[in-house]
Design brief:
Blueprint: H1 17-25, H2 39-52, H3 56-79, H4 83-112
């Protein structure tokens, strides 16, 4: 049974918005675990991850935008003396900055080390 056989004319239902946002912003689902499996499987997974590294700068740009948005929102809230929401924006901005750093380290690692095994 092929995908779409349950729907008329092969039409697929629309994907929920939360799932689209997850796929748009979260890059780690597109990479494979290189710590599991036999040596051959780990090598293949590492090569796959190296091939997928070209998408990391695009995800980094998205997360840099989110970081800037959080910090700008926080600074705007400070102007209106809304200290608690501003602190929340700054905390979320720090978390998004951590994701940017992780993506940058991952990209540099995959770019620099062609063969891990």
């Amino acid at each position: 049974m092929e995908r779409g056989d349950n729907y008329p004319n092969g039409a697929q239902p629309l994907e929920p918005l939360w799932r689209l946002a997850y796929r748009f912003f979260w890059p780690f689902q597109y990479f494979r675990d290189v710590t599991q499996g036999s040596l051959l499987e780990r090598q293949q997974n590492y090569r796959y991850n190296r091939a997928m590294r070209v998408y990391l700068p695009g995800f980094m740009v998205k997360w840099v935008f989110l970081t800037a948005l959080c910090f700008l929102t926080g600074s705007a809230l400070v102007q209106f003396a809304a200290v608690v929401p501003a602190a929340g924006c700054y905390i979320v901005g720090c978390w998004t900055f951590i994701v940017v750093v992780l993506l940058g380290v991952d990209w540099v690692w995959l770019e620099r080390f062609p063969e891990l095994y």
